């Protein structure tokens, strides 16, 4: 049975994400960690009559007890955007938060599968990798940047222009998780939805900048929380299934060194020297087992990939330098 810790559990994402994890009957322990509000939120969720025992942990002194023995650690801790900000503007605060929480992972549960939600994902995942490397416990197969919300948006936004499209059909989204680093592969459903060139451009742009729609609508009160909790849980549920022996395939921002041969496909498309990229990954009980190609990528999507490479490289470098400096 599976033990899950949510770090940042009392936040806008953390609360509904913890609620969804609580509903999963394969989870036996749900450890909720935050620096504020955690006892109340955890007490509330703990009354739900499912299998897992919920425990609250508040403040750095309790991080060790929270993480010891965990199979999966999900991290939505950190500040969200306000209108006018990019995800990179969050680096100054969130880089240090992720660094310190991952130090806790390195010390207490280095074998856990670690899911990073905190933005900017293109930098926080390399930060996590560097901290784990520094501690001699880095297993690239076990570290994931959660970009599932882009996949969720892709299916929903196609449905908005083609009402007959099944909104559960997954559409691969590769690259990174910010603006033009997000590369939806709409050609994977093109034989069914037959979008015009203009529609492809419009839907692609909407997926790339879907986060901004929510930030603007919330008008200073943060960014996507409920759709992100759904997306984050979808990813965590896939990992739980994988741990229980049912391998899964997800697009996720990972270290390409896990499968040099599989990564070749993405490198040939333009991700030549990148250490991290969101790819279609086959995931088993110990993390990523292999990277798989995506068929039928269009010339337009190849251009998008090429435009994504340089910003992702800069984001990775910022993360790496933050720890190595
Ligand atoms: P929020 O402010 O509502 O919640 C964040 C929580 O983190 C708060 O409860 C806060 O107390 C906690 N926190 C802060 N420092 C902490 C620390 N050192 N240890 C533990 N907890 C700490 O923000 P939110 O809306 O939940 O967003 C959280 C993060 O997720 C943001 O960085 C946001 O940009 C990101 N996000 C990512 C995606 C994605 O697709 N990957 C989607 C939406 C939001
Ligand atoms: C999103 O895509 O909704 C998140 O990355 C939050 C944001 O800042 O837009």
TrEMBL record:
The UniProt entry, under SUPFAM superfamilies, shows: LDH C-terminal domain-like, NAD(P)-binding Rossmann-fold domains
Origin: domain of life: Eukaryota
The transmembrane segments are none
Enzyme Commission no: 1.1.1.37
Q: Which residues form the active site?
A: 177 (proton acceptor)
- Single GO biological process annotation from the record: carboxylic acid metabolic process
Q: Which GO terms describe its molecular function?
A: L-malate dehydrogenase (NAD+) activity
Describe the reaction catalysed, as an equation: (S)-malate + NAD(+) = oxaloacetate + NADH + H(+)
Record's GO cellular component terms: cytoplasm
Q: Which residues does NAD(+) bind?
A: 8-14, 34, 94, 117-119, 228
Q: What class of enzyme is it?
A: oxidoreductase
Q: Is Cytoplasm one of the keywords?
A: no
Q: Which UniProt keywords apply?
A: NAD, Oxidoreductase, Tricarboxylic acid cycle
Q: Which InterPro entries has this protein been placed in?
A: L-lactate/malate_DH, Lactate/malate_DH_C, Lactate/malate_DH_N, Lactate_DH/Glyco_Ohase_4_C, Malate_DH_type1, NAD(P)-bd_dom_sf
Recorded hits in Pfam families, A to Z, give: Ldh_1_C, Ldh_1_N
- List ligand-binding residues for substrate: 81, 87, 119, 153
| Chain ranges of the Lactate/malate dehydrogenase C-terminal domain | 148-322
Boundaries of every Lactate/malate dehydrogenase N-terminal domain copy = 2-145
Q: Describe the protein's quaternary organization and the partners it interacts with.
A: Homodimer.
Which family would the database say this protein is a member of?
Belongs to the LDH/MDH superfamily. MDH type 1 family.
Q: What is this protein called?
A: malate dehydrogenase
**Source organism (scientific name):** Smittium mucronatum
């Amino acid at each position: 049975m599976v033990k899950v810790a949510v770090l940042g559990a009392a936040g806008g994402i953390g609360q509904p994400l913890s609620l969804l994890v609580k509903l999963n009957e394969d989870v036996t322990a749900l450890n909720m960690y935050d620096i504020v509000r955690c006892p109340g939120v955890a007490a509330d969720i703990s009354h739900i009559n499912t299998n897992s025992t919920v425990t609250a942990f508040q403040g750095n002194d309790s991080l060790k007890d929270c993480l010891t023995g965990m199979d999966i650690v999900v991290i939505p801790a950190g500040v969200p955007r306000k209108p006018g900000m990019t995800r990179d503007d969050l680096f100054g605060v969130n880089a240090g938060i992720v660094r310190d929480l991952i130090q806790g992972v390195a010390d207490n549960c280095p074998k856990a599968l670690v899911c990073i939600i905190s933005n900017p994902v293109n930098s926080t995942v390399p930060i996590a990798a560097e901290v784990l490397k520094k501690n001699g416990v880095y297993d690239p197969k076990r570290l994931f940047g959660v970009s599932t919300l882009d996949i969720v948006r892709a299916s929903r936004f196609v449905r908005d222009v083609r009402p007959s499209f099944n909104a559960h059909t997954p559409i691969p989204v590769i690259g990174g998780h910010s603006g033009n680093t997000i590369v939806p592969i709409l050609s994977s459903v093109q034989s069914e939805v037959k979008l015009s060139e203009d529609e492809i451009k419009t839907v692609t742009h909407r997926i790339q900048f879907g986060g901004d729609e929510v930030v603007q609508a919330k008008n200073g009160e943060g960014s996507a929380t409920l759709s992100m909790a759904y997306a984050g849980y979808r990813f965590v549920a896939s990992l739980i299934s994988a741990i229980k022996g049912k391998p899964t395939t997800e697009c996720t921002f990972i270290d390409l060194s896990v499968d040099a041969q599989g990564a070749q496909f993405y490198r040939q498309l333009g991700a030549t020297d990148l250490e991290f990229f969101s790819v279609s990954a086959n995931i088993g009980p110990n993390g990523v087992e292999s990277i798989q190609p995506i068929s039928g990528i269009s010339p337009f999507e190849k251009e998008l990939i090429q435009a994504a490479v340089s910003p992702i490289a800069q984001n990775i470098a910022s993360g790496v330098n933050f720890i190595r400096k």
